[in-house]
Amino acid sequence: MTLPPEQRLARALSRGGGPLALAESCTGGLVAHRVTEVAGASAYFERGLVVYSNRAKTELLGVPEELLAAHGAVSEPCARAMLAGLFARTPARLAAAVTGVAGPGGGSEEKPVGTVWVAWGRPGAAAAQLLRLSGTRSQIKAAAAEAVLERLAAAAAVATAMECPA
CA-CA-CA-CA torsion for 122, 31, 13, 121, nearest 10 degrees? Predict the structure, then answer.
């Protein structure tokens, strides 16, 4: 039986590779909630920011207003800038940022409901991915949180294996 990603993340980060920080928009803190559902999370979880508004993204993470105007909050440049802001403002060695359109409104032809960008990684080694999710608002938020946790668990496992070879 495969452990849920937050359990795998906890297992990897308890061996090193943290601290972990999160910046969440469309998931509204759901990723942080799942991380903190695991007993002992305080050993590796530094902080989570819910940056729902553009102003919050700018004030708390340093996402340039020009970037938001040019690409929008639901974009790869914004997700990467949110992640970079975490690394610049926290001691995180592993982090993730998520921004998207959970619906039911707010979508557009270019960025329909279910469009979600995730950025994750370590300082100097980040990745970003576009997700196209479907379902209700709750289902989209849950699927986005699951995707973030899966990517973090994989990144933490690789880093732990490199730092602590068997």
Answer: -10
> What's the Rg (C-alpha) of the chain?
15
- Residues 40-49 pLDDT 10s: 999 999 999 9
* Pairing relationship of beta strands 45-50 and 94-100 according to DSSP bridges: unpaired
Three-state DSSP at 17 gives coil
Q: Single out the residue of 11, 8, 32, 34 nearest to residue 97, CA to CA.
A: 32
Place of tokens 């002992």: 40
153 in helix, strand or coil?
helix
Bridge partners, 94 (sequence order): 20
Report how far residue 156's alpha carbon sits from residue 62's, in angstroms, rounded to the nearest whole number: 25
Q: Which two tokens stand for residue 138?
A: 């709750």
Q: How far apart are CA 139 and CA 40, in angstroms?
A: 27
Q: Which of 18, 27, 77, 33 is nearest to 52 (CA)?
A: 27
pLDDT bracket for residue 7 (50, 70, 90): very high
> How far is it, in rounded angstroms, from Cα 121 to Cα 159?
10
